[in-house]
Amino acid sequence: MAEYLTATEYIQHHMAHLASMKQSSVVDFSVVNFDTIFFSVLMMAVMFFLLRAGAKKATSGVPGKMQCAVEMLVEMVNNQAKNIVHGDRTFVAPLALTVFCWVALMNSIDLIPVDLFPVIASWFGLSHLRPLPTADLNGPLGMSLGVLLLLFYYGVKVKGFSGFIAELFTAPFGKHPALWAFNFLLNLIEYLAKFVSLGMRLFGNMYAGELLFFLLALLGGFALELSPVGAVSAGIGQVFAGLVWWLFHVLIVLLQYFIFMMLTLVYIVPGSQQSLKNIFSFYSLFL
User: Fold this and answer.
1) Whole-angstrom distance, CA of residue 196 vs CA of residue 200
2) Largest distance between two CA atoms of the chain
C-alpha cells in the first residue's frame, strides 16, 4: 500500500479487489475476486459454527443466552415463512434461515473500520483487499442465481416438470396456441427481473454504504494538511459523522438481509402473488 495517497487514489485502492486480473469495470465477470470468495465462505463457516453451537447447547431445561438467541432467530424466520408458505415448509424455512444469517454476517463486515482488513492484508504482502462480499456485484448476483435455480427446482417439485413447462406457455394470458409466445416471453422477463432485482438491490445499497465510509475516512487524511484548529475540527467531524452514519448503517444492514430473505421466500413459492404484493407494500415504506 502506498504511504501517501490522494483522495482519488485512496478510493480507487479500497475499491480494488484481490483478483485474478485487473478489473476493467464494476461489471466484469471474467475476473475472479478471491477476497469475495474468501469472505463469503468464511461468513458461511461462521454461520454454521454459531448455529451448531446453539444446537449443541440446546436443553429442555432453563435455556442459556445462546440457545435463546438461536431460538428467537429460528422462530422469527419460521413465522415469516409461515405467513408466505401455506403448506410444507421443510424446504423453504431452513433456506430462509440460511439466507438470513449468511447475508446478515456478510453485511456486518461493512460495520468494521474500512482500513482494518487492508492494513492486515498488507502485512502479508497483499496490495488490495476488499472484504465486503455484498458490495461486489458478483456476490449478490451469485446468490440471486442460486435463488433462481431453487425457484425452478421448487416449481418443478410442486407442479411437476410437465406442469411447470406448460405454465411457462399458458400463463398468464391463456392456453390458446397464438398466446404461447407472449406467455413465454412474459415469464422469461419475469424470471430475469427477479434475478436482477434481487441481486442489484442488495449490491446497490451495500456498495453505496461502503463508498460513504471511504469518504468519511478521508476526513482524517485531510486533517493532516490543515492548521491545528482545522485539524481538530476535521477530526471531530470525522468521528461524529462516522458514528452517525455507522448507527444509521446498522439499520440499513438489518433491513437489507431481511428484505433479501423475504423476497427469496416470495420468489421461490409458486402461487404467492398476493404475498408478493404485501412484501412490496412493506418494502415501499423504506424507499
Assistant:
1) 6
2) 78
Spell 4-28 as b/e; 16+ CB within 10 A means b.
eeeeeebbebbbbbbbeeebeeeee
Q: Hey, what's the cell of 87?
A: 403448506
d(CA 271, CA 85): 10
Of 53-57, 117-121, 244-248, 252-256, least confident by mean pLDDT is 53-57
C-alpha cell recorded at residue 196 = 436482477
Three cell numbers written together for 207: 456498495
Residue 183 to residues 149, 177, 187, 195, 275, Cα–Cα distance (Å): 20, 10, 6, 18, 22
- Predicted pLDDT at 143: 93
Q: Out of 78, 89, 187, 201, which one is annotated catalytic?
A: 201
Look at residue 45 and tell me whether its pLDDT is greater than 70.
yes
Is residue 187 part of the annotated active site? The answer reads no
Backbone phi, then psi, for 245, in 5-degree steps? Answer: -70, -35
Q: Which cell goes with 27?
A: 461489471
**Is residue 197 annotated as part of the catalytic site, yes or no?**
yes
Q: For residue range 50-66, list pLDDT tens digits in order.
A: 888 877 877 777 777 88
Three cell numbers written together for 206? 451495500
Render 60-109 in DSSP notation, one character per residue. Answer: SSS--HHHHHHHHHHHHHHHHHHHH--S--TTHHHHHHHHHHHHHHHHHG
Which DSSP symbol is given to 33?
Answer: B
Share of the chain above pLDDT 70, in %: 83
pLDDT digits 0-9 by tens, 184-240: 999 999 899 999 989 999 999 999 999 989 888 887 666 556 556 556 666 677 778
Higher-confidence residue of 53 and 149: namely 149
**CA contacts within 13 A on the Cβ side of 159:** 18
Domain ranges of the chain: 7-284
